Amino acid sequence: MYLDIHDLSFQYDETRLIDAFSCGIEEGTITAILGCSGSGKSTLLRLISGLEMPAKGRMVLDGKIMFDHKTFTEAHLRQIGLVFQDYALFPHMTVRKNIEYGVRKSEVKRKKEIVRRLLQMVELTEDAHKYPSECSGGMQQRVAIARALANHPKLLLLDEPFSNLDQQLKERMRILMKQWFKEQGATVILVTHDRQDAAYLADAIIELDGEQ
Fold first, then answer.
1. How many whole angstroms separate alpha carbon 165 and alpha carbon 183?
2. How far apart are the first and last CA of the chain?
3. Mind listing the domains of the chain with CATH numbers?
4. What is the pTM of this model?
5. Helix, strand, coil percentages for the chain (3-state, nearest 5)
6. What is the distance between the alpha carbons of residues 204 and 206, in angstroms, rounded to a whole number?
7. Cβ-based neighbour number of residue 24 at 10 Å
8. Which candidate, 84, 83, 74, places its Cα nearest to that of 50?
9. What is the dihedral of CA 207, 151, 92, 84, to 10 degrees?
10. How far is it, in rounded angstroms, from Cα 80 to Cα 2?
11. Looking at the chain, which terminus has fewer C-beta neighbours within 10 angstroms, N or C?
């Protein structure tokens, strides 16, 4: 199993948000975590990425322990990409510069080629000079995903990726994203409250109830 999570629990101010969550995810698959508001979806992504520390549990990614009772790998060492709902782009950087920021230092010699390919993949080559304020919601989403992919993450996490898009653009982005991820062989987890998003994109669906 590429990603193996066992008995993951997390609480905040005496409130248990995640209780004994377990799952296994194969490499190169898209998994949707489906649940209503307050079910713990975003918290689960933060735990997987290393932005929060679990109360207990174990997680192994690509054969390496990310956390258990004696190990906690810091977020910047996990090679996990996380795209937030608000995309978190740098407003003072162009589309190109935002994507360049994601390229690993070890691949600086290939930076131009990596960015060129990503711009082409997300159909933003002609908009590379624009700043986030000049981009639509769909464009900003694509920049955020391209920036995350520039680091060649072992795992890509998407937090409600379509929440800021209108229905027509959402349907277009579903098609594009599934195509990109399958072509890249990316392993992806997305959280959503929308069953249609989950059904279209995901190879597997995990449902969280309101008590998580």
1. 24
2. 24
3. 1-78+192-212 (3.40.50.300)
4. 0.88
5. 40, 25, 35
6. 7
7. 13
8. 74
9. 10
10. 13
11. N
Q: Is 35 helix (H, G, I), strand (E, B) or coil?
A: coil
Residue 5 to residue 56: CA distance in whole angstroms? 11
| Cα–Cα distance measured from residue 163 to residue 196, given in angstroms and rounded to the nearest whole number | 13
Which H or E run includes 149? helix 137-149
| 137 neighbors 169 (Cβ within 8 angstroms) | yes
Using the 8-state DSSP alphabet, how is residue 128 labeled?
T
Structure tokens at 180: 């990109």
Residues 6+ apart with CB under 8 A from 75: 49, 50, 51
pLDDT in tens, the chain (212 residues): 999 999 999 988 777 789 999 999 999 999 999 988 778 898 999 999 999 999 999 999 999 999 999 999 999 999 999 998 888 899 999 999 999 998 988 788 889 999 998 999 888 999 999 999 999 988 998 899 899 888 889 999 999 888 877 888 888 888 888 988 898 899 999 999 899 999 999 999 999 875 44
Environment class of residue 53 by beta-carbon count within 10 Å: exposed (0-12), middle (13-18) or buried (19+)? exposed
Outline where 17-73 has alpha helix (H). 41-49
Q: What region does 180 belong to: left with phi over 0, alpha with psi -120 to 50, or beta?
A: alpha
